[in-house]
Every structure is written in C-alpha cells, then in structure tokens.
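Table S2 (continued). Query chain:
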Amino acid sequence: MSGSSSDEAKESGKAKANNRTWHYTPTLPLGASPYFSWPFDLIAVAKWIVKGWFPLTERAIILLISIFSWVFLHPDLERCLTFSFDWIAEIYLRNLLLMILIAGGLHLYFYVWRLQGNERQFDSRPFLTNNRLFTFRSQVWDNVFWSLASGVTIWTAYEAVMLWALANGYMPALSLPDDLPWLVLLIFILPMWETVHFFIIHRIIHEAPFYDSIHALHHRNTNVGPWSGLSMHPIEHLIYLSTVLIHFIVPAHPLLIIFHLQYFTLSAASTHTGFQGITSGGRLVLPLGTFHHQLHHRYFKCNYGGLEVPLDQWTGSFHDGTAESHQQFLDRRRKKRNA
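Corresponding output:
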C-alpha cells in the first residue's frame, strides 16, 4: 500500500501547501471508487478492490479478527436458540476486549507513546481537557466512556439478536461449504453497503432536531482520535448498527454477522485515528485514517458517506480536499443560509 517515491514527494508537497489549515494532507483531489465511472474501466475497478483488501489493509485485518472470533470466541449456534446470560456475556466480553485492544492500542501508539510523532497526522491540535463540553471534562475519557458503555453494549445486543434469529430460522441462512462463494461475495461487497447505509442515516441525523439531541455528541470531536469513532449517543448506536438488519433479507452466516458488526465498529476506531496510517521508514505501510471523513469532522456539512459509492458527489455534498472544492463548499453553505 505504500506509494512510489514520486507519490511521496507529491504528498509531502501537498502537506506543505496546506499547512495553514492542516498539518498533513494526502495527495489531492480525493476520489471515489471507479465502480460507477463511465466508460467502465475493469482494470481500475480491479486495482481498487485489490488496494482495499491486499496485502495488509484495515479490511483484511478485521476479516482475520472476525474469522478468529468465529472459530475460537463464538458460542455454538445451538446455544443461541434461546437468550441466555452465559453466551451473551461471552460475546460482550469478546467485543469489549476487541474495542479496548484496537481503539486503545491505536491511541497508545499514536498519542501516548507517540511512536510516529506527528508524521502523517492530519490535525496536530491536542485533544481537549478540562472542557465542560465533554463527559468527565476530557475529550479522550468522554470518547472512551461512550464507546464502551454504549457502543459495545449495543453492538453485543445486535449480535445476540441476529444470532438468535439465525439459530431459529427467522432469516435466510448460508451453509458452508456449499454457499462459500456467496459468503465471499457478500464479504467483499459489504463496504459498498456500509457506504450506502452510513450516508442515508448520516444525512438524517444531521438534520434538526436529530442533530442537537443525538449526533452532536459525536461531533464534539472536531479533531478525532481512535476512541472518537464509536463515541456516539446510544440512539445513534442503535441507528448506526442497524446496518446488520439487512440480513433479514440478505442471507447470513455467523461469520458474516460477526464480520459485519466488527467492520462497522472496529473500523470506526481505525478510520478515526487522525493519521493517514502507520508508517515505516517514511513509507505508508498500513492505511487507516481517512482524510475524507476528517474533512467532515472539521466542516460538518460535507462528506456524509464513504468513497465506495459516490453518493456525496451525486448529491452535491462532496469535498475533495482542494482549495477549489472548499470554496464551492463555502458558497453552498452561504446560499443555504441566505435561502
């Protein structure tokens, strides 16, 4: 995933050119996936897919964690026929430890131990402390509290309900090994569904009265860190993780349910690192944070979705990070205020 030396030079130049607003920016303009570009370019699509999954990517790591969870840390489906404290508690403990490991580990790496300094950090402003806006007057502890107390609890509740429904035959099911090709296909297209679902619910909760009563809690973070990703109001957790309910229509398997929910929760931590990713010798070896979403946290009214499906481009809310795009964003905001 690391770029060529010329790409590195371009990115370095971009960082310097934008240092009045950002400490670091990737190569601009940002672009969405080529899936819906015309004329259709099969080679570009293949490169996008490979880049998203191989050789060492956030998605691939979460998939491996999900497979490990399914094989070693998951109750047999027969136990899920009825709700029981023991198997639900096992899932809760696993999810709690995973969130602490991923979000906590990334926070230690980037912000406590500072193993990368501020190399490829989008916004170098420190996290807020002694601020009454946050629970416990601390941005970090506010984020930790809402991620664990609400996020992990609702994540576990959804997983328990989905496994119970699958065990009782209330949703279409995939069986292995016969349906392995379908399972692989659904895993690979999950990021597209994530973009569509997130865009729809995100636009809704950005409107009054939902924003002030629900989504404002997440947007306390104008500068984000790993614990910011799942720091949400409990109602937003219910809405955000409702993505998994698609499996009452789309066939499911325990591994697919686990991966679906872990992708939405663990990637929330990794994409909110505030850094483009982990580097080695000045080269990007593991992309993590998305500048696309960092722009949303700074400016609020843009980039509601992701880059797998260009819904922001289609609806006029895309910010590609360039000065020209930012001016267009300011013009749109001005017109809306004057309307």
